[in-house]
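Collaboration report, partner site 2.

Our partner group contributed sequences for two proteins of shared interest, and the home lab folded both. The records are reproduced in the order in which they were received, starting with the first partner submission.
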Amino acid sequence: MSLRAAVSAHDALDGARTAIAAGGSDSARLDAELLLAHALGVTRERLLIDRDLVVTGEAVRRFQSHVRRRSVDREPVAYIVGRRAFRRLELTVDARVLVPRPETELLVEIGCELDRGARVLDCCTGSGAVALALKDERDDLRVSGSDLSDAALTVARANAERLGLDVTWQRADLLDGLAGSFAAILANPPYVPTSVIATLEPEVARHEPALALDGGKDGLELIRRLVAQAARADIKLLAIEHGGEGQADAVADLCDEAGFSAIDRRRDLAGHERVIVARPVM
């Protein structure tokens, strides 16, 4: 995409949509609008209603760079603009963490069902999305977030500070090394089989952190460990996000074999099995 020294926002969007679509994005219109709004420092709503907006000066160069990163490099829009909406929050995100996805909101909904004052862990917290959204919606809960990645925890802590949400952060390998006990564990662990990662869309394979994606040979390596660790802990609920119908049976079986009962399968907004909820025998 090439822009003159000054061009209307409408014309800039048309050129960007064409370039981004040619690069392989199936959301080229939305991508272009978000990138131009960011380059201009305005809201997307302002971009759409103000017909007199002009792209000029430094904004031209910023927008060209944004479009190149999206269309050629296939970098996620969230990384380019540095933020992503999740539930009621806007989170800061970059290549140190996964881009929060709508299906992961299901973990927050499950957490909102917990008893008042419960102590809950968001395991493999990444950007802190689940922990922060849960604290935002259920301030009575005592929420912690853990991750093996120091870089991810840096992002999560910064989000918590910016949003003013009181969440405790710990570095841990799943449940190993955690301080304290929890009534509930919510987890979105890596669950992509190692051999599959390279075949994913470029936004994921090229840009998102492998540590947060790689679930080992069968995709269940970390889930298997997490279920075994949780079975030895004094918890009332374990909720694990997994890779849809292809893994639901396997994760449910792992929970059953570990001695959990009342195993419940939850579906995301698209109707796909997405989370296994397991409770111990009481």
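Second partner submission, folded after the first:
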Amino acid sequence: MLQTNMDEYFETIFGYKPKKRGTGYELLVGAVLKLLNATQDVTHNVIQEGKYSKDKYQIDALVKNKFATIFIECKDYTERNKPTQRADVQKLAGALNNLDINAGILVSATGFTKPAVQYSESTKLNPNAKEIELFLIRPSTEKDTEGIMLSLCVSLDLETIDHENSKVIPIMDIEKVQEILKRNGYKAGEQYNAITNRLLKSDGTLYKYISEIVNDKTINPSVNGISSGEFYFDEDVFACIYGELIQVDKLVYEIRHKVKNIPEFIKIKDKAVLVVKSQDGQIDRIITERQLKSIVFNSDGTIDYKGRY
């Protein structure tokens, strides 16, 4: 769809077009100003009475931060494809002189004429004038985004313990183990199966879980995916067999690992939407669709940012 003005461009992003001509661009500008500094208050369509007269001034967007209150004026001349003129800057300067507002920003979708830029610069030199900064906010092009990464896809190889093929062998006095088994009815050659995860102190209280020791040994597996070695204890440690404590001298372990691939573990695909440039060169940004979709336009005119970029 070919847009002839910024209201139609607003519609392609947010899915609706405001009824009043120019409102879409005003809202886009307000959204950009909120994204540039989420801590400042941005309100769309503010009516304010003059200090020295009863004139009512319609302010496209009013920005308040801890340093200043700023009058935002928006000009969308995309249909006629003409830059914003000096007269627009002068009109804003006249309004500022009659308002309890610190400064102004004139925003254009098509750029500025040289006389407009010169007049803006004069407001920064004139001690009796309030400063007016010029901003260009327009749709982005492919050339604007050269060298900028807008898409990201990360696959994850997750390494976990292969419990089925791993083994941990507690080394104990085999003769003492055989004596305990014999007293409990086992005969030579019979298999004794036991499941335990607990290693005990001499008083029968817990020393550590075997799984805890094993997990500590899987931080840096070898190249072939196996962690192997011996673990020695810092005090006497026991296993319980039929209620009797048998000292464990060490653990011999061979921990095998397996890798599970998680495709598209992180997937971000964004789209450049707007170019933002200030005349003084302090701001030169690309605003994306993902950022704009985190903006909320409230019914009272306030503009909020509800996301993370």
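Feedback sent to the partner group on the second submission included the following. The radius of gyration is 36 Å. The first helix runs from residue 6 to 14.
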